[in-house]
TrEMBL record:
It comes from Chryseobacterium nematophagum. Its EC number is 3.1.26.3. Keywords: Cytoplasm, Endonuclease, Hydrolase, Magnesium, Metal-binding, mRNA processing, Nuclease, RNA-binding, rRNA processing, rRNA-binding, tRNA processing. It catalyses: Endonucleolytic cleavage to 5'-phosphomonoester. GO terms for cellular component: cytoplasm. The active site is at 69, 136. This is Ribonuclease 3.
Length: 253
């Protein structure tokens, strides 16, 4: 037993010598997140490297993000298929969307403080989706490093547990999507009318009006067309839900 401890300490010291200080920090933090000693540090360097404008562009997180997106989608789809044997395709699709949507992935990446693992400081501002992008890149790196079964275990036991997924079951991800589903069932027409407005300080904003047939039922203003439509849809949802119980009618297996 003492001999085993000696060799463990010896190997750890040896490993520290081979890794740079930055790599050692990355390796140590990732072990806390993944619950396993990483094998190929270069994969994680790439996963936490930003894109830059240099012609001699080194690898960055985008390719691993692409891979991680597919791996995560497959693992979540299989998990939901096995967990809800009686659920129809529509319910499974909705649940998957709630789990892998950009907002939820951003939150997961933020909770793990993944931006603290970025390899180089960058003068350009980080995009609003960077935490979610890095979360997917991390999954892509873990898949290549550990292969599918261990990667699956890491996701379902540490990164995105079934308990966390269950919390999302009744969460509304998109009010616009919910209204669309309701309007198709009721055979009524929901329309969005969005236009640009220039404010006094010359800032450009977007105002969206939601129409139910010939009636204007809600409006909202935001900094982007997508945000304005979602905010207006949310307001329309609360108005209609009092009359139609949209949420209750949409929850079907």
């Amino acid at each position: 037993m003492e001999l085993q401890k000696y060799f463990s300490k010896f190997l750890l010291k040896n490993r520290k010598k081979k890794l740079t200080e930055r790599d050692y920090f990355l390796s140590t933090e990732l072990k806390k997140i993944l619950g396993s000693e990483i094998r190929n540090i270069s994969l994680y360097r790439e996963a936490f490297s930003l894109k830059n404008s240099s012609k001699n562009q080194e690898s960055n997180y985008e390719r691993l993000e692409f891979l991680g997106d597919s791996v995560l989608g497959t693992i979540i789809s299989c998990h939901l298929f096995q967990t809800y044997p009686q659920a129809n395709e529509g319910y499974l699709t909705q649940m998957k969307s709630k789990i892998v949507n950009r907002k939820n992935l951003n939150k997961l990446g933020e909770d793990l403080k993944l931006t603290s693992l970025l390899q180089k400081s960058n003068s350009m501002a980080l995009g609003e989706n960077i935490s979610g992008n890095l979360f997917e890149a991390l999954i892509g790196a873990a898949y290549l490093d550990f292969q599918y079964e261990i990667c699956k275990k890491i996701i379902l036991e540490r990164l995105l547990t079934p308990i966390e997924m269950n919390k999302l079951e009744n969460k509304i991800v998109s009010y616009k999507g919910l209204l669309l589903e309701w309007s198709q069932k009721k055979k009524v027409n929901i329309k969005y009318e969005t236009c640009e407005e220039v404010q006094v300080n010359k800032a450009i904003v977007f105002r969206c009006h939601v129409w139910l047939g010939d009636e204007k039922i809600a409006n909202a203003m935001e900094t982007s067309k997508k945000k304005a439509e979602e905010k207006a849809a949310q307001r329309a949802f609360y108005i209609l839900n009092k009359k139609e119980n949209i949420l209750g009618n949409s929850k079907t297996l």
